User: Fold this.
Amino acid sequence: MSLFSLFGALEIGLIFSLVALGVFISFRLLRFPDLTVDGSFPLGGAVGAMCIVSGMDPFLATVCATLAGAAAGVLTALLNVHLKIMDLLASILMMIALYSINLRIMGKPNIPLIMEPTVFSVLQPEWLVDYIGRPLILIVVVVLAKFGLDAYFSTQQGLAIRATGSNPRMARSQGVNTGAMIILGMAISNGLVGLAGALYAQTQGGADISMGIGTIVIGLAAVIVGESILPSRKLFMLTLAVVLGAIVYRFFIALALNSDFIGLKAQDLNLVTALLVTVALVIPLLKQRYARRKRV
Amino acid sequence: MLKATDLKITFNPCTPIETRALQGLSLEIPTGQFVTVIGTNGAGKSTFLNAVSGDLAVDSGSILIDDSEVTRLPVWQRAAKVARVFQDPMAGTCEDLTIEENMALAQCRGSKRGLSWAVKASQRDHYREHLAKLGLGLENRLTDRIGLLSGGQRQAVSLLMAALQPSRILLLDEHTAALDPRTADFVLKLTQRIVAEKQLTTMMVTHSMRQALDVGDRTVMLHQGQVVLDVSGEQRKGMHVKDLLNMFEQVRGEEISDDALLLS
Assistant:
């Protein structure tokens, strides 16, 4: 594997660690199986790209994309909390609705950003090659997001969100407005995914209507891989595991697709993903069996 | 003070399994009183308690806590006034959170939850003090997940949590029923101590007639969704389970056939 593809994998891994953090909030903290991310990721890309193309400052455009993602999360949560639609179904409805909305926003299936300013082109010093500069900038973003979430979920409000996911009946009896907490948590989750979408569009040279396909699988894969390489119950370790999981996952994918001797090609990406997640899911089981045998 | 007037709740109305759980139940508990509620299976004890907490909506009737109407308020809005300990030790605490985080959740009951740290250093000492009084050694395990604790330990922490913030009424829903006899005794003694210390207005649902008479200031018996017996003061002192049963037979003209109630 070349240095170039190594940094490429790191770059995409870092972007998807934002997605993974979002998925971690919905699936693990709130226990809300949320497929909205397949729509809010390209939504972030679409909004970010459109804003940049229309001449907006790329930073402001990225903020807009984040807010758009958060709004999508709020809508999914509203469907569930107020209209009592089952969580998974509410998110599927939102996901397919967003496909049309994203096409409407972009007006066409893709928006190129090759010649436009991006947060990366603005921040990057001239002496640094862009395939090293981009991951460096992303590391800062991901570290900020990770520690920001750690701090937030240690506040009174953050704790209320965690209690809502863990034991909603108890949370209510302690005066937590669980409906509001689900809405808030889903906003944060999808806001992160929207941010990731906007950054992805800016690193990949444009937004595309199909860029969201399988986002949820990659996000979940990262969470599961992370949990199996760094098992812990502490929030600080959990968010760290999720970030590492996303990066490790991308490295494995890059490794599998770049090594000629295995003979895998780009079209095998989804198969590799499925295999990798299966392995990550089975490892804890094998560990358990091995430990039991050793004891006997 | 709690004032429940003419509460009615019917489950599965207009179906073959229609159950009229509460049929015009009225009860008034003055401030500072400790009431034990007893009744056979299906008498409406838990339904009544859930109606007061807000977990169940009543079909008709009204619930007043300290002269303010709470009949239509959701659980979380009543929480400032109502503290509760569940029957299931797993239900009253958050398994995934640490002991101190669970206590911090209870510390905020009735106030707005903002962006300040949930567990502050000053509170930690406060929690440790409370836990030390339990004598279970939990004061050294503040950062342990509460899921690691036994049912009895969790129930004891639930009680502490319920008393952490002032409430207008404390609801105890057969909170010793799922524990082994020794632990149940410990939790019951703890209950009496906390209620006396903080002079809490308390309603305790129990399945044991003995317990109902031994604990608290007043015993109320429910039957078919209504209050059938209400004893307190001199009449209640020195009263035995048998006396209670005789009274019940006199009032209702029927015998109690619930073994669990008689044997415990």
